[in-house]
């Protein structure tokens, strides 16, 4: 009887051990699956954030281009019509002329550079 009892205890212990092992395997599989889903969600979120950042950068670039175009269009006119007093008109006599004078603006040359930062020196014929 003693041998049979020991045998039964071994069988029961083995069954309990196997049940614990299968439970542990199931728990590990669930954890792996949850981790995989979390990684996928984070990856999707990262993709969406990068896409939004690209769209925002594109919109900012378009706004900058539109602002520069507007600035180029809004250049002040160089033609100035001077108001002429009656004494000057009398001295001109019957000539009907309108005096037009261009403003002499000082041209400031910004040194042009290559992408690597080296200065571009243009030949004299191409300089303003």
Low-confidence stretches: none
- As laid out across the biggest beta sheet, the strand order is 1-2
Percent of residues in helices? 55-70%
What's the gyration radius in Å? Answer: 43 Å
Count of separate structural domains: 1
* Number of E-type strands: 2
Give the CA-based shape.
rod-shaped
What is the typical, i.e. mean, pLDDT? 82
Compressed to H and E, one letter per element, the order equals HEHE
Distance between the termini: 116 Å
Characterize this entry briefly.
The protein is 62% helix and 5% strand.
Task: Tell me what the structure shows.
The chain is built from two helices and two strands, in the order αβαβ. By secondary structure, the protein is mostly helical. It has one domain. It has a two-stranded antiparallel sheet with strand order 1-2. The mean pLDDT is 82.
SSE topology sketch:
Elements: H1 2-73, E1 79-81, H2 86-92, E2 100-102
Antiparallel strand pairs: 1-2
